[in-house]
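Box 4.2: Ligand-aware structure prediction
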Amino acid sequence: EFLLEARDVHRAFGATRALRGASVEVARSEILAVMGPSGSGKSTLLHCLAGIYRPDQEEIIFDGTRVDTLSEAKRTELRRDAFGFVFQFGQLVPELTALDNVALPLLLAKTPRKQAYAQAAPWLERLGLDDHATHRSGELSGGQAQRVALARALVHRPRVLFADEPTGALDTLTGENVMNLLVNAAREEGITVVLVTHDARVAAYADREIVVRDGRALTTPSSAVA
Ligand code: ADP
Ligand code: ADP
C-alpha cells in the first residue's frame, strides 16, 4: 500500500513529449529522490504527482484516491491541505516579513489570525530563524530565504512535501544545511518527500532514488544507467 503512485503517466507540451509512460511508487514516510539529466521530465513528473499538471494519460493515486480525475477545485483543495512545495527559488513575497510568509498559507486557508501566527512562529524557531521573523523576506540571504520557504511548506503539516531542486540556487554548505533541516523535519513529522534533483550529493539524503530518462522513470541505480 503506497501513499502516492503514478502509473504510466504521459504528458506532452505541444510536440515535446515530456513524459512517455513514467511510473513511480512512493511509500509512506519515504524520502524519494528523483534524479536524471536536465530536460528528462523530472519537474513534469513532480507536477503531475502533485496534481498541478493534469497528465494526458495516466493514473495518479494519492492515499487510495485517483487524483488525476478530480475536478480542478478538488485538486486545489488537496494541494493546499495535504501537500507542501519548495522550489529552487523560494518564491516568497519579498515585501512581507519572514513570519508573514510562513503564516500566509494558513491565512489563505482561513485559519484565524492568532492561530496562524501561533503555528507559524515555532517553525521559524525550528529552522533557526527566530531572529529574522520580522525581517522583510526580500532582505534575507539565499539560505535564510530557502529556510523560510521550507517553514512555509511545512507549516500546515502536509502529508507529502514536493521539493524541486530546493538547493539549486545555494552554495554547497548552505545547501547541506537546508537539506539537513528538510530531512530532519520530514522524519520527525513522518512527512513523505518527493525530491527532484540532478545533484547526487542532494539525492544522498534520500532513502531511495529513481532516475528519469527520456520521460520514463527507472528504478535502476543511476550508476547502472550512466
Ligand atoms: P527536468 O525537470 O528533468 O529538467 P522538465 O520536466 O522540466 O525536465 O522538462 C521536460 C521537457 O518538457 C523539456 O524538454 C522541457 O523543455 C519541456 N517542458 C517542460 N515544461 C514545459 C512547459 N510548460 N511548456 C513547454 N515545454 C515544457
Ligand atoms: P527546473 O529545470 O529548475 O525544474 P525549468 O527552468 O525547467 O525548471 O522550468 C521552470 C518552469 O518553466 C516550469 O514550470 C516548467 O514547466 C516551465 N518550462 C520548462 N521548460 C519549458 C519550455 N520549453 N517552455 C515553456 N515552459 C517551460
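In the box above, the bound molecule is adenosine-5'-diphosphate. Confidence is low (pLDDT under 50) at residues 222-226.
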